[in-house]
Specification:
The protein is of the alpha/beta class. Helices cover about 35% and strands about 15% of the residues. A 5-stranded mixed sheet has the order 3-2-1-4-5.
Length: about 250
């Protein structure tokens, strides 16, 4: 438990590359086995080989995603209006842009078949929020697990926007949101799309209402370039290195 506590603190400090592994071993805190200790020691061995990787707070704008068309949602969500906090201070300085990567690993837990959510949110080119968490429900399809992950991401995004607004930081436009499931993209981008699975209705309407408010606009991102993929499953070394090199930077 002490070793896992150290690892969790390192994740909070910015070691995104071990976030999913630490999240997985943390779930065995109450009844750990010897093999879980070996897994923790394996993570420390990785850190010993790559000790100095870090995040860089890059304030330049992200040119990764092209402009996304905003659809007319007024017929479906007429109540959806973007509201600012009533006691929000006057925004000063240069505005920031938000980018969010969302992914889910369907039924990744071999015992309970729970899926895992991965969320990575950037302010300009600086990663600010990263999350790897086992989903509370058991989804019967990858569509459902992706929508649950997207709902979690939107909740984190709303909290971040509120914090920035209350600190007087202007937020420019909408949040570019990248997912690697084309069916989810269509269901959240096309107002006329119809949900066929009622079990996902809450996440479905919650996300779509936020799209109607223009809090975010969703676009497709290939799995190989979706940064949130590193937060949903344990990757092979080459894949981990590929994502790590794009998110983090080696020490001096």
């Amino acid at each position: 438990m002490q070793l896992i506590g150290i690892l969790r603190w390192l994740v909070e400090l910015g070691r995104i590359d071990i976030c999913v592994e630490v999240s997985m071993v943390s779930s065995y805190n109450c009844m750990p086995r010897v093999t879980h200790l070996y897994a923790v020691l394996h993570i420390f061995s990785y850190l010993q080989v790559y000790p100095d990787w870090k995040l860089v707070m890059d304030s330049t704008y992200n040119d990764h995603i092209p402009e996304i068309e905003q659809r007319d949602w007024s017929e479906f969500y007429p109540f959806a209006k973007k509201m600012n906090p009533p006691d929000m201070p006057e925004a000063l300085g240069v505005g920031v842009e938000l980018t969010m990567f969302v992914d889910a690993s369907h039924t990744t837990n071999l015992i309970t078949r729970q899926s895992r959510t991965g969320v990575l949110i950037y302010v300009n080119k600086a990663p600010i929020i990263w999350l790897s968490k086992k989903q509370n429900s058991i989804e019967t399809s990858s569509f459902g697990s992706e929508f649950m992950a997207l709902k979690t991401g939107v909740e984190l995004l709303e909290g971040l926007i509120f914090k920035l607004q209350m600190m007087g930081v202007p937020v420019e436009g909408y949040c570019d949101t990248c997912v690697d499931n084309m069916l989810v993209v269509n269901n959240t981008s096309v107002p006329e799309s119809v949900l066929k699975k009622k079990s996902n209705s809450i996440a479905y309407h919650f996300v779509r209402s936020k799209c109607a408010q223009d809090v975010l606009r969703i676009t497709y991102e290939n799995t190989k370039t979706n940064f949130a993929d590193i937060l949903t499953k344990v990757q092979v070394g080459v894949t981990t290195k590929s994502f790590r090199d794009k998110i983090m930077f080696p020490g001096d």
